[in-house]
Amino acid sequence: MIRLRQLNRLLGHAWEHNPFYRRKWTAAGVRQRRLSRLEDLADFPLTMRVELVADQTASPPLGSNRARPLAEFRRIHRSSGTTRTPVFWGDTARTWRWILEGSERLFQLAGVQPADRLLFAMGFGPSSGPWIIYEGAHRLGCLCFTSAAVEVGEQRRWLEQFRPSILVGKPSALLALAAAGPGAGRRPASPGVRMLILTGEPNFESLRGRLERAWGAECFDRYGLTEAGSVAGECPAHPGGMHLLDEAFIAESIDPLTGRPVANGAPGELVLTTLGRVDRPIIRYRTGDRVRLVRDYACACGRSGTLLLGGVRRLGADETPKARRKP
Ligand SMILES: [Zn+2]
């Protein structure tokens, strides 16, 4: 019921204050009303990335998908990805707080404690991912430091000096850091490290064993996107997938060619609605990511809810209908 209340609040706010969605829904013939069940969200049209890009191009910098004046926005980030037109994303103070709550929740889900020390072996550029992960750990109360743009030899010395218990970074970067140490491959690359949080590179499963051996530490996958924030993360039970933050999102999975929902556990395109990012939401947004959603999964860690089974991968051009390229 809480999620339904949040969804009605989100939709009501968008009807009143968000020109992008009001225009889109009116054109699709959707009537403004309170929903009586979550499933009724399916009456609303899907939102495509190309629509957001076109809207942002027509009225820079953020387009008309916002429910507050630009002066109230506090952060702008760019979606990652070098091959596609970037989407700029903005947050007001309250929606950034909501984003960080999700990030913190994923750390808690993985078993990260306030006493942990985190070394972020990653760059902090225009995309929001590294900032969200860093500030989420900070919010949890962890000691955080970053070795972005520091050469690998000096990063090794920092490992000795600061003794982090958790490393965060791309799998390839963490492998390179392990390989740069003395006696690489014969003992854990830094004895105090107990956990590796992997981000930024999907499909790292083939590297998981190598990473765990090189560091003598457990790997945790994490998934998010600029338009949504932190979406899903792995728990210590490692059920073969990531827990999706059901309290923050409504997740659907559709056949990318027909737009129809797929069966429980079947591969499909992830469609997300951000329940709390009310000032710049995504509502039934096609992420372009292929996932397998398992509903009501009861995990050995104690959490029940949607499991994102296996990895996430970007849909190929041959899996997307031509219609997707039009608003
Ligand atoms: Zn679990």
Can you characterise this structure?
- This protein is of the alpha/beta class and 327 residues long.
- The chain has 2 domains: 2-81 and 223-325, Rossmann fold (3-Layer(aba) Sandwich), CATH 3.40.50.12780; 99-222, Rossmann fold.
- The protein is 29% helix and 25% strand.
- It is built from 8 helices and 13 strands.
- The chain has helices spanning 2-17, 19-27, 49-58, 93-110, 129-140, 152-162, 171-179, 205-215, and strands spanning 73-78, 88-92, 117-120, 143-146, 166-169, 195-198, 218-225, 229-233, 241-244, 249-254, 267-274, 285-298, 304-314.
- The protein has an 11-stranded mixed beta sheet with strand order 4-3-5-6-7-8-9-13-12-11-10, sandwiched between helices.
- Helix 8 (205-215) links the parallel strand 6 and strand 7 (218-225).
- The chain is globular, with a radius of gyration of 20 Å.
- The two termini are 33 Å apart.
- The structure holds zinc ion.
